[in-house]
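Chapter summary example.
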Amino acid sequence: MRKRMTTLLAVSAAAALCLAGCGTQSVTESGTSAVSAEEEEAQMSAADEAGGEYAAESDTVPEDGVYTAEFITDSSMFHVNEACDGKGTLTVEDGVMTIHVSLVSRNIVNLYYGTAEEAQEEGAALIEPTEDEVTYSDGYTETVYGFDIPVPALDEEFSVAIIGTKGVWYDHTVSVSNPVRIEEESAAEAGVSPESLNLADGTYTIGVTLEGGTGRATIESPAVLIVTGGAATARITWSSSNYDYMIVGEEHYLPISTEGGSLFEIPVDGFDYAMAVTADTTAMSEPHEIDYTIYFDSSTISPAE
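The structure predicted for these 305 residues follows.
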């Protein structure tokens, strides 16, 4: 993208010089101005200077990596899915930025980086949708369309065009801002690590808070916390016996008991932050995975009696 913008500036610089000297230039049959070798060299020099100036202003491009970033649009009908909190995934590779955004439905079937008029030109490179699964705060999941959109610069508006199921192109302006490297964000969210608490091996109790789902399910608090070699596991007892497995990270865990509520023993990767888990319930007409968070409060840790 940086090369493309530099090229555009080069063309603009060359065009400006052409206009300045148009009184002495001849015009070919194709309508293109004929220039001498000396004039061409001068234009190339001006273009190089313009390109260098742009490159100096492009230092705001983040280092190569993956980030979350805010995706802002000019329309309430075209925006990021509410489950994504107004953000997309920004990828920077060799200084080129692309943001992936999940939309609200599958009604937008193509997207174009540019204007609606350009999108309808022969050979226009349309951006095809991806199928993204989003999960809402109540645990409901839905498949929507997402798009990978080139980003020319941060904090600056640029044009995109969209076409829906009715076959009509619409112009929009969007911008991307506030990139946060995903690794940094995850580290910040990880709270206090089990190792940093220097807990001796043994059994403790800890206060836990559950959020997510419909709000009807609960877990017992305090929960049992077991520390072995600096690693911590917690015994989580649900208010229902209908949970048949839990997912922490990418691992599935089966209940060790279902009497009086489903009881699981799961790893605790950090305290004092909302640790994401998924629990599958069979209480509905068919099994349903629901996303939750569990907060382990390190200030409440006490030796078990």
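To summarize the output: The longest strand covers residues 288-303.
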